[in-house]
Amino acid sequence: MASLVDLVALSLLPVWRWRAVADALREGRAPSDILAAQCAESAGRAPATARDRFDPGALRSEAADAISRGVEAGLDTVQWSDPAYPPWLAAIVDPPPVLWVRGNRGALDRPAVAIVGSRAGSPYALAVAERLASDLAAQGIVVVSGLARGVDSAAHRGALLAGGLTVAVMGCGADRVYPGEHRTLAGEIAARGAVLSELAPGTPPRGVFFPRRNRIISGLSRAIVVVEAGAKSGSLITARCALEQGRDVLAVPGSILTDRNRGGHALLRDGAKIVESADDILEELGLGGPAGDKPSRGGAPGGASPDSDPVLASLLCGEPCGLDVVASRSGLPVPRLLPRLLELELRGLIRRAGGGRFIRVDTSC
Predict the structure, then answer these.
(1) Which domains are seen in the chain, by residue range?
(2) Per-residue pLDDT in tens (0 to 9) along the chain, 365 residues
């Protein structure tokens, strides 16, 4: 419990401190030590920046209150140190120390694709988003979006109609619903997938939170599909986050007779892959081949010995290794490394150790 209180307290620090917090967590430092260091550093600031001063006792008290509210609301927590913390999200530069989850946190443990677009989506955009989400969910892909009006909600509904999993990332506490008209939809999402937030329970929606949550939408996902986006659409923020995180960005073409999809067409001109069906997305992710082409569980890829596989060879038996270490040893960049690690985990050759770290557990050790 003490560690959870410290992690929640770290999440209450201003956003400009989150990257330093993430770097310290990756180094293996205790959350209590990081909190003390952040507060000590803030205490040495000049009076002109007194707003950046923090007291660890006050932050811990606020964190304890947040945890109590979360328990009352039936929320689960996924801590940075938890093996269930999504490794794709752990790989971004400023991952949340704690995720607050309503629903099935197992939905965070599967390959995911984000579908985003205009809040005032055209009938065409809504139909496309629902169809893409339904087809992806039917293939076992988790659909991630932001529960906003328009394309986001159509994507969530499409996944649910297919009986699949979907995750809604909120710009408020996970115990709240915004917009309010999506309360029923949020309940349906939580019943099968998950509603989550990095914000403490009880936090109301604010404009500043929504651009921040976009990095989580892309961070959870292997690819981001923009269905319809104007020239200044918030969906382009998600696409920019995705590019910075090394994720694939795809876009659906729209009519050239309106301004509704100028942002989407700009992405296509800049090299985003065109999407006409879910098969285009699966192909981009390397998941579009026939079932017979998928490797069997057990053994290294392609039948090679474990030591001949650069990713397995970079992991020492019983030694938790972070993504940066594995990337350095294997020579693979993180965006290419993450799908390989997921593949090896599904084969039972490695397991998660929390904090975005992995351990080799195959029988050759």
Answers:
(1) 1-72 (no CATH), 105-284 (3.40.50.450), 295-360 (1.10.10.10)
(2) 558 999 999 999 987 888 899 889 888 899 999 999 998 887 766 454 444 567 889 999 999 999 999 999 999 999 988 888 988 888 888 899 999 999 999 899 888 999 999 898 889 999 999 999 999 999 999 999 999 999 999 999 999 999 999 999 999 999 999 999 999 999 999 999 999 999 999 999 998 899 899 999 999 999 999 998 887 777 888 888 888 888 889 999 987 767 788 888 888 888 889 999 999 999 888 776 443 344 333 444 444 445 567 888 877 777 788 777 888 888 877 766 776 777 787 677 888 776 667 888 865 55
C-alpha 87/C-alpha 352 separation (Å) is: 8
d(CA 256, CA 310): 47
How many C-beta atoms lie closer than 10 Å to residue 148's C-beta?
A: 23
Amino acid, single-letter form, for residue 364: S
Nearest to 361 by CA among 318, 307, 304, 298: 318
pTM: 0.81
d(CA 83, CA 303): 28
- Sorted by sequence, the CB contacts under 8 Å of residue 216 that are 6+ apart come out as 89, 96, 169, 196, 198
